[in-house]
Task: structure prediction
Amino acid sequence: MPLHNADMAAIFDEIADLLEIQEANPFRVRAYRNAARVVNEFGRDIGSLLRQGGMLPKLPGIGADLAAKISEIVDTGKCAMLERLRKELPSAVTELLKVPGLGPKRVKALYHDLDVQTPEQLYRAAKNGRIRTLHGFGEKTEHNILAALAMRVGQPRRFLLAEAALAADAITAYLQQMPGVGRVIVAGSFRRMRDTVGDLDILATAPADSAVMARFIAYDEIGETLSHGPTRASVMLRGGLQVDIRVVDELSYGAALHYFTGSRAHVIAVRKLAQARGLKINEYGVFKGQARVAGDTEESVYRSVGLSYIPPELREDRGELEVARAGLLPHLLTLADLRGDLHVHTRASDGRNTLREMAQAASDMGLEYLAITEHSRRLHVAHGLDAEHLLLQMEEIDKLNASLQGITLLKGIEVDILEDGSLDLPDDVLARLDLVVGAVHSHFGLSREKQTERIVRAMAHPHFTLLAHPGGRLIGKRDACDVDMQRIIRAAKQRGCYLELDAQPERMDLPDVHCRMAKEEGVLVSINSDAHAARDFGNLYFGAGQARRGWLEKTDVLNTRSLQALRPLLSATMS
Ligand code: DGT
Ligand code: CA
Ligand code: CA
Result:
């Protein structure tokens, strides 16, 4: 399709915008802006002129370089320079520039202040009301951004498990109230406790003629009904989360639950086992010829293929069938096994509650000990503590411990691991703590070699106890650092220190496969809330889920130990 003057002008305008965002030379920016205007206002169609073999007319302010770009655009329909600039900047920038009323200056402010890279993240920020909180932005701009992105971001996106859990709890409670409904359970990746879910898959049991479906699609959080029939429906909640529902009769419950829990690969592997025994498994039951031989419970489905019950978190076709057949399935950790939390913040750095409030909340969770681990001085944005403030807090903890009942506070720090692998506080201060939690908060982009070396060096520090959020990912926002996790885990083993599973919903770090790697190498994992407020101890539930996906048992987890058993394990690392 031939490009016209206005198209060409749009290309030059976008180049000017992107250059401006990159803080390029203002004269260069102005040259492209000028070119956009001149081309747009030129009385004849430049593309047609050139294609007819004519020369590019003399245009004010258009030198050889810009003239060459005009020819390139006419010839190829594209401009390599624009493509390159787009690649250099986060994709959210291109989307933001399309929003009416947003110029390059405000776009730059947005993507810096919100720390968004992709249109999806931007959409979420707008949805969560974060844009209106920025200086110079109001509700109207936020609304414009949402409207502009809604079309694009209608494409599938994944939700954090904890986010999805809020919706899942509300909708299952609603369904449970309906007369005639038997069981209501969320299957799919949600039940397998993946860190993110694509959608919710609800299974309900009810008689064939029940009004369950009609009631389901009357749920007032539904934004759009995608499809609906007598036994199945799909809806989109207002928040953008899709919910699929299937209604089956009680007799098929186990087979249906097995099928809809997945994973697909696991279900297929179980079906293969069934075929080898002359059985057929589908979502209605296990059949031998025409006869149903199992399927009312999941146990009966597994039994029919000679296996013991496999917990949902293990159903990823990662060897669980072989292990089940050998009768060697792990006794997975449960939330109740956790007796302490080794990573939390208070108001002293970037948390919201006091020491006493955090201690109370941990105690309410049934925990016996709680390590206070503020950020260290390097992390200014989190009001990190210097040695002096840390020592003051240690005194405060001693005093508080004297009056607390049923819970003990431990003295710790979440100390920054600096670029060279050294720690952000002096040794003599670190030596006085019960534990030292080390964390990477900067220089995420080092090469695999350098990043791994940096962390291994930090762990070699005599006072190092626990590596916080080892991969450094923020789900949907930042990929994990490029590191050799096997080497880090082996170094931890050698050094006698531990790895954290940080249970913040957007961290979930260590992820499952690395939990399993740690277990295999004999390195204990500590499942911590990384709480910044009293309510964040709820993170531990999801952390336990991720640990289960990583095959962890009670004995594989550091903070299942009593305080008495824990103390020597912490000091074992202090040499
Ligand atoms: P998600 O939603 O992307 O986080 O992942 P899942 O595992 O929840 O996948 P979803 O919602 O597409 O399907 C839910 C379950 O239903 C899935 O885990 C297994 C089962 N399922 C769906 N489609 C198929 C299929 O074509 N074949 C088989 N064997 N199972 C399927
Ligand atoms: Ca799903
Ligand atoms: Ca689904």
